[in-house]
Amino acid sequence: MEGNRIKIIDAHTHVQFEQYDKDRDEMIAGALASGIGMINAGADLKSSKDAVDLSYKYENGVWAAVGIHPTEPKDFDKLEEIKKLATDPNVVGIGECGLDYFRDKDFDIQKKQKEIFENHIRLSNNVKKPLVIHCREAFVDTIDVLMANKNDLLPEPGILHFFTGTIENARQLLNLNFSFTFGGLITFNRSFDDMLKFIPLEKILVETDAPFVTPVPYRGKRNEPAFITSTIEALAKIKEVSVEIASKTALNNTTGLFNLSI
Ligand SMILES: [Zn+2]
Predict the structure, then answer these.
(1) The pTM is what?
(2) Distance 69 CA to ligand 1 centre (A)
(3) Ligand 1 centroid to 3 CA: how many Å?
């Protein structure tokens, strides 16, 4: 196998989801052939297992993150199984985990979400794999939970995926040494420009979060890892660096944080 064939890594995607049942292998092979690798994140037990299985179908370039998404309470009692999956060498991150108050306004569910999130933080520490955090309309509580569990955070504790917080939230998360992933939204929604200018390039990773949030110029199509190049182009433009620098830096950030050998 030629070394260094992976040039870009989609740091957060879901090609194990059913939207790809018809052409998954073809699509992944196409992405890998053009030098695009990916980390498939689980959202519940099944999609976590599927992400791990998928990683074994390819020699290099396809990794998994395992966890229970805050809006999947049906699997909140499956953490023991997630813990077993987490030790797999192809599992490079713990998540998606975190808090989502956009979809769940109920106090008891929010309390439960926090408890499950804390379990993921401890798991991340136990297996020494960074957190993949989903946070929607819950930044104050997410930061509170992270601060309260600071001793369990790794030196490079992980990513806030699809970051939609404020500059102040970003500042606090940077103080904890977190990184951030941005996706297709930055190709067409200019309200992220100031945030992207604020966060150092060394703390930014790129993702598609496929099948969701397709970037320009592919709007209207199903999203997929190959479309990550548009997000890198948008990032380069906002950061006023070359596409090559943006691409290389995002790659280094991803391999460094998730300990990937490519
Ligand atoms: Zn996701």
Answers:
(1) 0.96
(2) 9
(3) 29
